[in-house]
Amino acid sequence: MALASLGRLAGSESTVLSPLRSVDAWGKRESDLLGAMTVYFMKSAINAKIPVDQSTVETLFQSANQGDERTMKSVLAEIGEEIAKNERKKAVDEGVENGLRIAIDNVTSSRFHKRSRRLNADVKRVSDFEQLNSILTFATVQATSINDVIAYVGALQ
Q: DSSP readout, the chain?
């Protein structure tokens, strides 16, 4: 999977679970291994921005060849739910972060009648909700200039 960062993960779904072909009897250990290997592949593919669709997942499971169909469907359902939950949370988190960044920009530009590229760049590097919230509060209530806000953000980092 280290090849994911090199863009070589695409297409590997046809072989990635092949070590499981030699499994004779599927038990809990083998099911857990299947789940772990599948999750690792899926997360690696998503991180590498490789599209994963139903046919990719079917090919992935076919690469195990002799696996228990019920186990594979169960693992797929769990992984699908987990990935969907993680993607929803990630989207919500990113949306809230971006909303706070936009609010900081709007407050500073309306209070001080100018925008600051430096402030926007500094605020983009902040990914903690509490810090973004404190920047917004400071910009709204305490700051007397845009430079105060820039200094405040700099002190957080």
A: -GGGGGT--TTGGGTTTGGGGG-SS--HHHHHHHHHHHHHHHHHHHHTT----HHHHHHHHHTT-S--HHHHHHHHHHHHHHHHHHHHHHHHHHHHHHHHHHHHHHHHHHHHSS--HHHHHHHHT---HHHHHHHHHIIIII-SSHHHHHHHHHHH-
Angstrom distance (rounded) from CA 124 to CA 116: 12
Question: What is the tens place of the pLDDT at every residue in 11-61?
Answer: 676 666 777 777 777 777 777 777 777 777 777 777 777 766 666 767 776
Rounded to 10°, the helix 146-156/69-112 angle is: 140
Token reading at 155: 């002190």
Nearest of 38, 146, 20, 140 to residue 83 by alpha carbon:
38
Contact 3, 9 (CB under 8 A): yes
Return d(Cα 140, Cα 27) in angstroms, integer. 59
Maximum mean pLDDT: which of 23-32, 47-56, 127-136, 148-157: 148-157
